[in-house]
Write a structure and sequence with these properties.
By secondary structure, this protein is α+β, with helices and mostly antiparallel strands. It folds into two domains: about 1-100, N-terminal domain of the delta subunit of the F1F0-ATP synthase (Peroxidase, domain 1); about 105-180. The protein has eight helices and four strands. It has helices at about 1-20, 25-40, 40-50, 55-65, 70-80, 90-105, 120-130, 165-180; strands at about 105-115, 135-145, 150-155, 160. The N and C termini lie far apart (about 55 Å).
Length: about 180
């Protein structure tokens, strides 16, 4: 259910931002709102309190954010409070960020290697991935896992390219186990 809610609300905010030609502004405001919620944990507690009316919760949100964010984002937050969806705000914003990256044709790449890559290797990897994918821009996250022995594992969206030596060894071992000696 939470996935559906975050998708529905995130999609609505994305479409509204597109319609108003305010995608960048909404992303900046989204970051600000996330920061405020992170800095003031009591705000979530207050919004979850059953004895505080929706009108009072809306008043609190308006007092905190009015003049600091656009009317569009403020209106969105009021709807989220009215519908009591503030617990899913983080997932809503995460969906929004994913939609914006998809819209701007930005690929998110996770790279796992056995040793740290040099800047030159990272540049070559970026260049090669831009050549073989349809993305205009890439965002990378790098991690080191010595257990893969060598090679690399790439994750781009829901696709995985595993060229690690560990996987090659595992596949060879499976193949050898299938061989029957007569």
């Amino acid at each position: 259910m939470a996935k559906l809610v975050s998708k529905t609300y995130g999609q609505a905010l994305f479409e509204l931002a597109l319609e108003e030609n305010a995608l960048e502004q909404i992303l900046e405001e989204e970051a600000f709102v996330k920061e405020v919620f992170a800095d003031y944990g009591d705000l979530v507690t207050l919004l979850n309190h059953p004895k505080i009316s929706k009108d009072e919760k809306i008043q609190v949100v308006e007092n905190i954010f009015k003049g600091k964010i656009s009317d569009t984002m403020l209106g969105f937050l009021v709807i989220v409070v009215t519908k009591e969806r503030y617990d899913e705000l983080e997932q809503i914003f995460q969906y929004l960020e994913e939609k914006v990256k998809e819209y701007k044709n930005i690929g998110v790449v996770s790279v796992t290697t056995a040793v740290e890559l040099s800047e030159e290797q990272k540049a070559r990897l970026t260049q090669r991935l831009l050549e073989v994918t349809s993305f205009k821009q890439l965002e990378f996250s790098y991690s080191v896992n010595p257990q893969i022995i060598g090679g690399m594992i790439l994750r781009i969206g829901d696709r995985i390219v595993d060229s690690s030596i560990r996987t090659e060894i595992d596949q060879m071992a499976k193949s050898l186990l299938k061989i029957q000696l007569s």
